[in-house]
Amino acid sequence: MFIICLFTVDLNLVNPEQECVYFCGNSLGLCPKKAHDYVNVEMDKWAKQGVQGHTKGDLPWAFCDEKLDSDMAKLVGGQPGEVAIMNGLTVNLHLLLISFYRPTPTRHKILCESKAFPSDYYAFASQMRLHGYDPESSMIFVEPRKGEYTLRTEDILDKIEAEGESIAVVCFSGVQYYTGQFFDIPTITKAGHEKGCYVGWDLAHAAGNVELHLHDWEVDFACWCSYKYMNSSAGGLASIFIHEKHKNTDLPKLEGWWGHKYSTRFQMNNEHDPIPGAYHYRISNTPGLLCAPLKASLEIFNKTSMPEIKAKSKLLTAYLEMRIKNKYPRIPNHIADGTSTDWKHVPCRYSYKQIHLCFINQTEEDQLSFFNQHHPCV
Ligand SMILES: Cc1ncc(COP(=O)(O)O)c(C=O)c1O
């Protein structure tokens, strides 16, 4: 098996008999072996203890997200209080934009990549309309140069320099879903701040894939799903990051009872007593069943660290590249080569233009993406 040939793998976590290489972790991560057991524990608890399950067991449902969010925060470089596990990715992007997209007649634009994931684009456009602005004039893009597929950091910075004063929010993906480009998050964040913009990141393809230091990079906000590189099951729980500098600010928010302090939550007196920080953004109680597979996945991440995962991922990616180039000598260059020759910036994926093979995830008719699944959880 591919992974076992290259590395020492904990055989308790894999099926060593299975000859399979999975390249679709970008879409849906594999099922951690312990996920079944942990889901069954929650099912049994429900069956046997009913409402008491809210406070009983390893994952008491009333706090099940809180049992996991410090592990989640570690993966993105968040401090305590900066990360909350909740909802789905696009829902969270909307909730964050409610706080950070506060357009005025002179500062009403959102800067994003020209091939932003459609759901992000719809979120930006609908937020603009919500505030009475027209996406035609309020959405601005950075596009690849002619004949290129990825964005040059200098072009992003130039756009921020030229239009920054009219930009309310800069929002890019950490790793571009289509090209695999890993954006220079600290440099872009700093440039946005220098022009007075809020800077946020959709980390759907970055969280659990590349090293992130959201707190140190002073990112204002970020959101990500956990069903891709974090193997938490289809539609698994998403997360948000809010930098602690926003903890005590009065940014507008959509509120619900799960953002209310536990000590007073059940007084039911309609006096909102919010938990400062990321938890303030929680609205509804957390689905306990969805925390079970996420717990199984985070336990695997906890056996190692993002730097170690990256070291392994780079070897796997290099090995994959060698195998592809040996088999298909005339293959064009990986399309993120322009920006990703520095291995520090290589996510665990490779995207090629204009080749056709049938067995690998084909995201569009002329693009192939290879995602090496670096987590040994078959
Ligand atoms: C970059 C990116 N943003 C947003 C989404 C939408 O995610 P969700 O359906 O969880 O809101 C996806 C889904 O694949 C994505 O890849």
Verbal overview:
- Its EC number is 3.7.1.3.
- Pathway: Cofactor biosynthesis; NAD(+) biosynthesis; quinolinate from L-kynurenine: step 2/3; Amino-acid degradation; L-kynurenine degradation; L-alanine and anthranilate from L-kynurenine: step 1/1.
- It catalyses: L-kynurenine + H2O = anthranilate + L-alanine + H(+); 3-hydroxy-L-kynurenine + H2O = 3-hydroxyanthranilate + L-alanine + H(+).
- With 378 residues, the protein is an alpha/beta fold.
- It has a domain at 52-302: Type I PLP-dependent aspartate aminotransferase-like (Major domain) (Aspartate Aminotransferase, domain 2, 3-Layer(aba) Sandwich), CATH 3.40.640.10.
- 33% of the residues lie in helices and 12% in strands.
- The chain is built from twelve helices and ten strands.
- The protein has helices at 2-6, 34-49, 69-76, 89-100, 118-130, 135-138, 153-163, 185-194, 262-265, 288-302, 306-327, 337-340, and strands spanning 83-85, 109-113, 139-142, 167-173, 198-202, 221-224, 239-242, 349-353, 362-364, 367-371.
- A seven-stranded mixed sheet has the order 1-7-6-5-4-2-3, sandwiched between helices. The chain has a three-stranded antiparallel sheet with strand order 8-10-9, with no helix packed on it.
- The structure holds pyridoxal-5'-phosphate (PLP).
- The site of pyridoxal-5'-phosphate has 12 residues, from helix 4 and helix 5.
How do the helices and strands line up, and which of them pair or pack?
Elements: H1 2-6, H2 34-49, H3 69-76, E1 83-85, H4 89-100, E2 109-113, H5 118-130, H6 135-138, E3 139-142, H7 153-163, E4 167-173, H8 185-194, E5 198-202, E6 221-224, E7 239-242, H9 262-265, H10 288-302, H11 306-327, H12 337-340, E8 349-353, E9 362-364, E10 367-371
Parallel strand pairs: 2-3, 2-4, 4-5, 5-6
Antiparallel strand pairs: 1-7, 6-7, 8-10, 9-10
Bound molecules: pyridoxal-5'-phosphate (PLP).
